[in-house]
Amino acid sequence: MKLEIGNIEIKEVVLGEEEKIDNGTLYLDPAKIKELVLTDDRLADCKIEIAKPGDSVRITPVKDVIEPRCKVDSTTGIFPGVINKVDVVGSGRTHVLKGCGVMTVGKIVGFQEGIVDMQGPGSELTPFSQLIEICLVLKPQEELDPHLYEEAARFAGLKTADYIGKLGEMIEPDTIETFETLPLLEQIQQYPDLPKIGYVYMLQTQGLLHDTYVYGTDAKHIVPTILYPTEVMDGAIISGNCVSACDKNTTYHHLNNPVIADLYKQHGKEINFLGVIVTNETVYLKDKHRSSDFVAKLSEYLGLDGVIISQEGFGNPDTDLIMNCKKVEEKGIKTVIVTDEYAGRDGASQSLADADKLATAVVTGGNANETIQLPKMDRLIGQLDYVDVIAGGFDGSLKDDGTIEVEIQAITGATNELGFNKMSAKGV
């Protein structure tokens, strides 16, 4: 499967009555975006605000971030099975508006939502401070069920990113990148002397607002399967969860998965990148056994020499991570696991809830319990009411002078297993 990514660099976003892209400036009509969002009668209001890198702006509670993009000369669309037809994506041409993101914000859905600062020490821990954020500040209807509100907010972000992305359909990209993975036997034969590497992509699927979707299907209901890496770049996987902000794989992370990007960079040079195994993180032990058995079986079936395994979340999913690692290693296949740590504010506690002697190669995104002082910002997008109760916050986190003391788990993308705290939003 071969995919061309046409990158259109967005250097400025202007709100007005025009809708176009001209010389790196994205012009948007907020009235039209609001009208699009409010076709969902579960939402009472939507305000569009812009936040730019370096601005004295705090955004919270952050739900999701989505990068605008669109298919070109194709009958398929991004986010298949959700807002477009359930067609296989990952081939042809996709235009991407780089340097900006659609961010859904507003009244809290679940307690595990986050903060993004556009300047200051907090900005250094999140990739989203480096993007021009097109914020949809959402107000749900009174007493709307949290699951319905999450769904409405999720669809608002996806529809808006799809709508904005289509403004780039006829624009000549600044750069074009090509990514290709051949059918399995052809791919093995292309680089027969290089180690065959796969990527085990663990998705948060614990339910209770901890969900991820694959081609529109709740991933808790799938058995592990194989995807071409390019399918992920076209929105085959989207976020629908409110896991701790630092851990959450936003839809932006899925679209720009840095593990996939780095594997492609080494493809044909140091490794032969064969593909992606997607799996879930369930709550019942029998489901963990089933999924980890499938991961090991598929790794063996593909003839892999090594795999990278990334995790989303912490605690209960640590068991899925270690079960995947252990069973793949027992097949004679080398593993590297990618996780973060919850080691207590002093760093002295056990970092993971599970472990095994076969987990000998670990990449960490850092200790999410570490605390940080966030200075007051001049402008707020969203609301501060929930800072004391979000994951990472505590009674007294919000100070009278407007500063905030929180664990870094409260910062969206801070120790994210896909983003890492030093990831550039424009690519790793």
UniProtKB/TrEMBL annotation:
Q: Tell me which domain of life the UniProt entry assigns to the organism this sequence originates from.
A: Bacteria
InterPro entries listed in its UniProt record:
Asp/glu_Ase-like_sf, Gly/sarc/bet_Rdtase_B_asu/bsu, Gly_reductase_pB_sua/b
Name the UniProt record assigns to this protein:
Glycine/sarcosine/betaine reductase component B subunit
